[in-house]
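Handout, tutorial session.
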Amino acid sequence: MSGEQDKPAIRIRKMAPEDLDQVIEIDQLSFSQPWPANSFQFEMYNNPVARLWVAEKIPETTPARIIGMMVIWMVIDEAHIGTIAVHPDYRRLGIGSMLFRHGLTHLQAEGAKLVYLEVRRTNFCAQELYRRLGFCMFDERKGYYQDNGEDALIFILDHLQTRNFS
């Protein structure tokens, strides 16, 4: 898919139990180290600091389809992006940015002052998105990713309350 004419109608909403199969599929298609399936269930049902969002494609006639997901942990006034991914068929259409902006707006409303995340050193597309949203590289974690020993870059977005994500 490419081009503005192919951009689907999207609704961002809280993740629901019926979304889990599609969320797990997106995670498995997106990462060499996907989360165990029960991790999403834990975040949804047992982690009070978790905020879970999905991007849902709104079709005209068939059931809606989950095409993106995001997990954020909010602790006091700091947020950590646990994971974010868009289904491979829908990448480079602005859906990740839309999902991220939605999550950041909600974090602002909850009083977050700072957001951080880890990203693979070689994931240039994700780094580009984070920079467009105002994140800056803050530090790195050597050998963070267990599958290949790749370093993680830590990106941070501070002064969240002064930013506009609309």
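The second record follows below. Compare its token runs with those of the first.
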Amino acid sequence: MSLNFTPMAQKEIKLLEQQISRLSNTGFDLEAWKKYTIIVLARIFGSNDEKIRQVEQLESEFSSWSLRDASGNKSYEERTKKLAKEILTAAIDEIKVFGISEDSPDNQDKNLEDILNIILDELKGSQVKQLKTILSSRRSKAEKSRKIKELLEGIGEYGAYAILTNMLMHPEMGKLTEKA
């Protein structure tokens, strides 16, 4: 049985496989490899993914691979490279089993930021301060809801309609309604 992957998943897997193959390059530079790998992993899985933390923790025992080679400490280099390979193999396996989520944590953060900007665009400065106060208070959910309704009444019917209309026009809303 052969699994079919989306073209995007195939590209991501190929990128990770290239990073694995770079581990055996002569003149290998761990720090440069880590920076590139972190960029790729963040793009695929989001910047808060555990695999990124693991790559960041990969360390060379001495300041350079050539110094380590000269000192006869090849085994440390090989252990580091083996661990790096395992991290990327796990990433590839994750893509093969679960696919790539279009809703990475970074995308979710951006969508929330978009929604917040839609709301803030319709509020005056004093209303923004009032909203922040309400949301950060220790009041019950019901009390916060009541206060937010009062705030929305203050911006008027057309302001509330503008907020709701712009939220519904957000590109992600179209995707959500297609799934429903």
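Points raised in discussion: The chain has nine helices and no strands.
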